[in-house]
Amino acid sequence: MESGELVPQPELSFTPKPADGRGGWRAALFIIAVGFFERIGFVGVSANLIMYLTGPLGMSTAAAAASVNAWGGTVAVLPLVGALAADSRLGRYRALMAACVLYLLSLGMMTASSGLQTPHPHAESSPSSTSPGQLAFFYVALYMLASAQGFYGPCAEALGADQFVRRDDDPRAIASRSSYFNWYHFFVSWGYAIASAGLSYVQDNVGWTVGFGACWAAMALAFVIFLLGTRMYRTEQPVEGGSFVETVRAWAARVFHRRKDPATVTERLLDSQSEESKGLVTKLLPIWVTSLVFAIIFSQVPTLFTKQSSTLDRRLGADTGVMVPPAALQSFINVTFIVLLPLYDRVLVPLARRLTGHETGITMLQRIGASMAVSCAAMVVAAFVETRRLRVARDAVLIDQPDVALPMSLWWMVPQYVLLGLAGVLGEVGLVEFFYDQVPDALRSVGLALCLSIFGVGSYASSVLVSVIDWATKRNGESWFSDNLNRAHLDYFYWLLAGLAALEVASFLYFANRYVYRNKG
To answer: PANTHER family from the entry (predicted)?
Structure first.
């Protein structure tokens, strides 16, 4: 897919000799375990957040979806700040310590806030009275959780990748690091699945306080495991000799290719990177921009997909009283990760390696491009399923009874989740590896933050898109995002996203074919 000479890079300055006993898979396993429990704690909040907002907090569907998307955007954009702080002053280890403390504080506040609400778990049809003070307290906790992710997001996975000696002329080192990214996401997917299925069931059927408390307990376990691995981690030294502001200024000068004499230690360190690292934004921006629709599509999973699921027949069996929580369907994305990542890493990559001679089987951009095509297909399927759901509502004369479950099984929605899971296996992991690999050595955390910011800006864009369409369609009748989903038109919105995704694939292929990789391989 790509052409051009590949520019070799020097070995990382912070890589110690292997004889020191630090690093390697033994150290990386601690980071993987931390990622597993961290996802349980974080996704236990994010996966079911729209149900909490429209339930106990009594928000409308459109307002709640916009609020969740805005918060999700903040979650994914703040890592840019956390990454610069980690790479300039804190280092990844101390940044993760700060993240763990913020996580425990925010989840503790959220648990306390939910305890002030009505104890009845099924609050959607009759939301409780929430005072402005209680609402403000909850939002402080929610955005404190976002700030924790600002430190955790760009540093945890990068610290795990740092455990492998980086030699760009050694195919085994490149393959090991690529394998680490696959296995990290494999185990993290288990955390997603447990949170989206298990904790959402607890929140819907036992109570929100218990559910948020379980999130706090999972995060406490993650913190303990992280501390236990301290003696084994290979840690990098942050840029020394300059303030955070100075580092941002120096980084911006390198990124935007502004030529000036390096006046500070920080600037001299960044100036020591190869000529190829200059003009970083010019090089990476087309890939970043052409990934935004991919992120917008994934923003629908915890919002509109979840509300859509809540209208269907959610009985686990015809003769049982067990109801599947709407957010639990998100676990099918994670199950797809769990099934396909080992197959991808152990079967498809070796096979592709023999065919292509490439140490990772296919290039990172080929992997990302395939994911965008799959996400487009997922939205086409979602549009067809929603069209059928609306037809069932009309045929059953339930259009004006939104609280009555439609005679349509919840399992109709599984294919769109599985397709998005496949898109995530290819795209989410591919984007992480790409942005880690293609930035200068001193800015690895910033690279992962750039990757996360795609999903942040995508969430913001989704929020704006939903709000604008809601405003425009209300003027001419029923909103596409009406609180009564039987009168809404999510199918139109999904077709719109499918069309945008098709345009994205064409644009991405244009830029990917002209991209020149920074590192050999």
So the answer is: OLIGOPEPTIDE TRANSPORTER-RELATED
Other CB atoms within a 10 A radius of the CB of residue 267 amount to 22
Q: Please report, rounded to a whole number, the percentage of residues in the chain having pLDDT higher than 90.
A: 39
| Together in a domain, 46 and 135 | yes
Mean of pLDDT values over 135-150:
91
Q: Which domain holds residue 382?
A: 267-520
Q: Are 325 and 181 members of one domain?
A: no
**Residues counted in the chain:** 521
8 Å CB contact between 36 and 188: yes
Query: Distance of CA 127 to CAs 53, 54, 56, 121, 296, Å?
Result: 9, 8, 5, 10, 29
Q: How far apart are CA 82 and CA 95, in angstroms?
A: 8
253: amino acid identity, one letter? A
Neighbour-count burial for 121-135, b at 16+ CB within 10 Å, e otherwise: bebbeebeebeeebe
Mean pLDDT confidence for 224-245: 74
- Residue 96: CATH number of its domain: 1.20.1250.20
Note whether 225 and 302 are same-domain residues: no
Q: pLDDT class for 376, splitting at 50, 70, 90?
A: very high
| Contact indicator for 177, 158 with CB cutoff of 8 Å | no
The predicted structure's pLDDT at residue 402: 85
What domain count does the chain have?
2
Q: Averaged over 113-135, what is the pLDDT?
A: 61
Using the predicted structure, report yes or no on whether residue 367 has a pLDDT greater than 90. yes
Instruction: Note the pTM of the prediction, 2 decimals.
Output: 0.72
Instruction: Judge if 401 and 495 occupy the same domain.
Output: yes
Based on the domain organization, do 315 and 170 belong to the same domain? Answer: no
Do 226 and 278 reside in the same domain of the chain? Answer: no
CA–CA distance from 507 to each of 293, 379, 512 (Å)? 11, 18, 9
- Tell whether 59 is covered by a domain: yes
Write out the two tokens for 137.
């307290």
CB 50 within 8 A of CB 60: no
Q: With beta carbons less than 8 A apart as the criterion, state whether 350 and 179 touch.
A: no
Residue 365 within any structural domain of the chain: yes
Q: What is the average pLDDT value for the chain, to the nearest integer?
A: 82
Q: Give the residue from 230, 252, 287 where a domain finishes.
A: 230
Amino acid at residue number 183: W
- Residue 103: CA atoms inside 13 Å, Cβ hemisphere, count? 31
Q: Which residue has the tokens 């903040």?
A: 74
Distance CA 222, CA 220 (A): 5
Residues 139 and 287 in one domain: no
402 in the same domain as 332: yes
- Pull the structure tokens for residue 157: 């996975």
From the number of C-beta atoms within 10 Å of its C-beta (0-12, 13-18, 19+), residue 321 rates as exposed
Residue 433, helix vs strand vs coil: helix
- For 165, the 3-state DSSP assignment is coil
- Tell me if 87 is assigned to some domain: yes
Alpha helix ranges (H) inside 280-347: 280-289, 292-299, 306-309, 331-343
pLDDT tens digits, 9-19:
333 333 334 44
